[in-house]
Amino acid sequence: MRKDVLLSHASRLVNHGPTVLVTTEHQGRRNIMAAAWSMPVEFTPPRIAVVVDKKTFTSELLQASGRFALCLPVPALADLTYRVGSESGRDIDDGRDKFQRHGIDAFTGPLLGLPLVEGCCAWLELRRIAEPHSEQAYDTVFGEVVSAQADDRVFANGRWSFRADNAEWHTLHHLGAGAFAVPSQVVQGALLRP
Amino acid sequence: MRKDVLLSHASRLVNHGPTVLVTTEHQGRRNIMAAAWSMPVEFTPPRIAVVVDKKTFTSELLQASGRFALCLPVPALADLTYRVGSESGRDIDDGRDKFQRHGIDAFTGPLLGLPLVEGCCAWLELRRIAEPHSEQAYDTVFGEVVSAQADDRVFANGRWSFRADNAEWHTLHHLGAGAFAVPSQVVQGALLRP
């Protein structure tokens, strides 16, 4: 079930390098793309960097609106994730955007009203931090998280819990060409004295 | 067995969000730390961003030398990865650096001569790209990969292959507090027409 996540825990949602769906909306136009390249840069305030090619429709909506969302897809969304990462939302098909074209159910983000993808395991809304040089030179967009939610079957009390009995809610990690690794095992490191 | 990786494939090594060991060396002083926060920003040329707190000894050596390496630890190195991410190389113990203190075997990087950690599954040497604003504001260091190697039991022909029979060479993905997810399963997305 979807639950709010403390903003002080929001960066933990992407700490382990999951592939994300980036969603955007501006004046009634919306889009969705996949991004394998993101990382937290700060826990407090929760800030995240994500690579969004400046030529994309997502970049156009992100720049115009100053906001974007990250949704973390699960194994059942592997086809969709690969698909929306392989086509442009500019290529409108019969007036249908990528949500309509692929039958993607979206709900409305609580703070910024962004379209968030049903069936994911976590959702974050971010305000763009204006860093035109990083955006231009490296397609790297910085954002500050203003709302965070996660499915409490897999993320609760500020921690991911990847277990055999909740495998359908694990994250995806893009290896290339549509193959996604799933973090289905966990090892615990110990702070042993040398 | 360790094999060279084409530079055009180097960014694929960190595409899926692994935790890395950052190693540095300057005028005979060397250090190692763990970093959960890194991502590619470009395939060609291969460029990677990594978050290195500017107060760390690693940052001092990186800034002074203009170079750093990323080594990808495997499950057997989970304790070590957690440990070197939890203490500073500035706290020299009886004149021993963190490599000596923890008995870490290192070999010499082929292009920049950096200390690379034996027993990892991939190794990259990078030259720092000077971006003082990103470093100052977000602890985000950009680098260009100049050498890349991987263990061909798990990465070959430009692709990761995570299988049950090579589980000891899988990557680690930090969840927090020393718990690491291991990408031990793979799902293949299809480019289905909607």
Structure, described:
- 2 copies of one chain form a homodimer.
- Chain A has 194 residues and is mostly beta strands.
- Chain A has 4 helices and 15 strands.
- The first copy, chain A, has helices spanning 57-65, 78-84, 98-101, 132-138, and strands at 2-4, 20-26, 29-35, 38-42, 47-51, 67-72, 106-108, 115-117, 122-129, 140-151, 155-156, 159-160, 173-176, 179-182, 185-188.
- In chain A, the strands form 4 sheets. In chain A, strands 1, 2, 3, 4, 5, 6, 9 and 10 form an 8-stranded antiparallel β-sheet that branches. Chain A has a two-stranded antiparallel ribbon with strand order 7-8.
- In chain A, a hairpin with a 2-residue loop joins strand 13 and strand 14 (179-182).
- The first copy, chain A, is globular, with a radius of gyration of 16 Å.
- Chain A starts with a strand and ends in a 6-residue tail after the last strand.
- The mean pLDDT of chain A is 95.
- Chains A and B meet through strand 4, strand 5, helix 2, helix 4 and strand 12 of A and strand 4, strand 5, helix 2, helix 4 and strand 12 of B.
Major beta-sheet overview of chain A: 8 strands, antiparallel
Q: What pair of chains forms the biggest interface?
A: A-B, 61 and 61 residues
The quaternary state of the protein chains shown equals homodimer
Helix run count of chain A: 4
